[in-house]
Amino acid sequence: MDEFGTIYASGITVFRNTEDTGYAYLEQPLYDVRSIALAAYKQPELKRND
Questions:
Q1: Contacts for 14-18 with beta carbons within 8 Å, 24 or more apart?
Q2: pLDDT of residue 7
Q3: For a tag site, which of 19, 21, 30, 37 has the least CB within 10 Å?
Q4: Within 10 A of 39 (CB to CB), how many other CB atoms are there?
């Protein structure tokens, strides 16, 4: 993947809940979910725009 690249995924089925629920199974899965993934720099140098 390029430095500023992203990954787009579609058609995802989600069948688990959140961490707060211990990743319990959902009663009704979520179908056709779309997602975008990208990397971020760790502690980048920041500049102010005054």
A1: none
A2: 96
A3: 19
A4: 11
Determine the Cα–Cα distance for residues 4 and 45; give it in Å rounded to an integer.
17
Distance of CA 8 to the CA centre of its chain: 10
Task: Give yes or no for a contact between 18 and 24, defined as CB atoms under 8 angstroms apart.
Answer: no
- Residue 20, token pair as written in the block: 């707060």
Using an 8 Å Cβ cutoff, are 7 and 1 in contact? yes
Tens-of-pLDDT digits for all 50 residues of the chain?
Answer: 788 899 999 999 999 999 999 999 999 999 999 999 999 889 989 899 87
